[in-house]
# Entry
Amino acid sequence: MGDGDGWVSCDAGHRHWGRHGAAGLLLYHPGLDGPHVLLQKRTLLSIGGGTWGILGGARHSHEDAITGALREAGEESTLDPSVVRVHGLVGEHHGGWSYETVIASVDERPRVRRASFETAAVAWVHVDEVPRKKLFPAFADGWSRLREALVRPVLVVDAAALDGTDGGRPVDDAALDGTDGGRRVDGAALVRLRDRLAALGPIADLPGAAADLSYPEIVIAADDADVPGVDGVRVVAVPAGAEAFAELAAPGAPDEHRVVVTGDPERRRRTQAAGAAVADPGWLLGLLS
# Structure
């Protein structure tokens, strides 16, 4: 038992489990036979006994949603939280109380077994089969949106397009080289851009994403890729021309959701044709500021 375990009423007068809110882990694996999600069948001793939902429970006062969801998943099953990659958060807010669903994936589908009195069974379920199960009511109500959120976000940044696209005002003295959106970005400026993007954190309302908060992999497209990447940010060389850029913009896997930041009209057109979302450089500059 922790300080989050207990009942609380929201502003609407409904009772919820979790004094500091609750969180759950919706883990998926893309799979060659289609995406599967890890579901928990609740025991009759649990709230909603006999129904299927996701591993999770009450958050403690010192925990954020991701920490709480991973802890609960590790307590209720044999899942190793270290293999989980977090991609987003979907929130359900009741006024004074909230439930956060952590969207995450695994590279390989591990065998997971029950590990607590709350869990009757744990199983990987194909997404098409989820609605056919007897679901925990709140999970059933949110499934359609959660299904759309089962993606791995990737943010592709056209480095040369950032400076000068917000009315000619440079980002700042530590930004990019050039003011016409098409000049070569020097190495020092690229390093500064890389570090600023690495410190960006989760992004609210990523264009085209179903999640409230997204934790994207970031790719910087530049003429010169001699600058090394850092954790969460890659720097790749893209030759001049919209065709080569479009190859980078195209989703590399079925579960990818790519958002490309560029102001070049032809690159924008080819990006959309490749199936990626497009964001204006001014949107990203606003986040960085």
